[in-house]
# Entry
Amino acid sequence: ELPLTYRDGLGKGERRERVQNALERVGMAHRLKHYPSQLSGGQQQRVAVARALVGEPSILLADEPTGNLDSKNGEAVMALLDELHQAGSTICMVTHDPRYADFADRKVFMFDGRVVDEDTLHRLRQEEDARLDEQIAKARDRGGRDAVGAA
# Structure
């Protein structure tokens, strides 16, 4: 509720209603009176999503919104983000999970801090994998299997 207290024209009743609705949307209404330290990492993640929703943003920046969630809750958060997008919000999301990246209308790929196209990303990953394979082979030649750990 705190972020909404600084908004003009929002009374206490409306603020509480928005908070309750947002928590219900992420399945956390039953934890309304709990402190963050009383919540699991996944529950804290869902509350963070709810906190973002109460302000009804036109643009939502989501950095790994499913990072600490199991697949069921991750899919629920993604469905919620999709619902917000369908209602007109712009969602800018960072994820390492290709399943969730596929929700996007547009994808931007990064490699070592640079924006790259998908073909370049694939090529760079193949080159990186080849370098790692070569390093592992050299380490094994020098010190045996234990030098790089059992595969």
User: Anything to note?
Assistant: The CA atoms of residues 4 and 14 lie 9 Å apart. The beta strands are 59-63, 90-94, 109-111, 114-116. The chain has a mean pLDDT of 87.
